[in-house]
């Protein structure tokens, strides 16, 4: 079994991908040989797929998964469920979260934590943000609303989250939110099955070129939260008698 799979959702990221794959390969090579990168092509119309294929022969295996259903949540879900590694997670193609976080992430998972969440809200995090006033205000309001679904988690939207296998299968298998708000549903599902969630301090830098549009995608994200209440009420009923996931001891890091 592979120790770690990192899923990278991609839609028209031809210009970013070479640096992304080099950065991830370097970071993983310094931590473990038992790892893979899973790039999920979310119906790209540029040369993203060709870039991935050109990098598949490196020291860290790179797999290409196709996800025709549009949406970041759909792409991440497809990548996670295509893997069978002990631990699996995802990061954004812009590598806004510094991959130095991978070492501490594996240590937490190995210690029995079920979910490791990169948190820009952590007091020890270093955050370099350049968002517009509109996006900052929208993000603040979204966090306030999301906290009602995932109490105690300061940052639901950082694009860096990792799971032990049992928890990943449980929360991604029945995921219904396919857009940018999918993180909220993931974490809410994890809390409802008793998963241990750890917020990890990160070094995060806002990278220009985000595909997130504050008005269009912001509206869709709030609409998704409105629908999520009914979804999570169902989850609570269905999972009332299911056992709490327990993380397996961490395999030796090669």
Automatic annotation (TrEMBL):
<protein>
    <submittedName>
        <fullName>Glycosyltransferase involved in cell wall biosynthesis</fullName>
    </submittedName>
</protein>
<feature type="domain" description="Glycosyltransferase 2-like">
    <location>
        <begin position="5"/>
        <end position="165"/>
    </location>
</feature>
<dbReference type="InterPro" id="IPR029044">
    <property type="entry name" value="Nucleotide-diphossugar_trans"/>
</dbReference>
<dbReference type="Pfam" id="PF00535">
    <property type="entry name" value="Glycos_transf_2"/>
</dbReference>
<dbReference type="InterPro" id="IPR001173">
    <property type="entry name" value="Glyco_trans_2-like"/>
</dbReference>
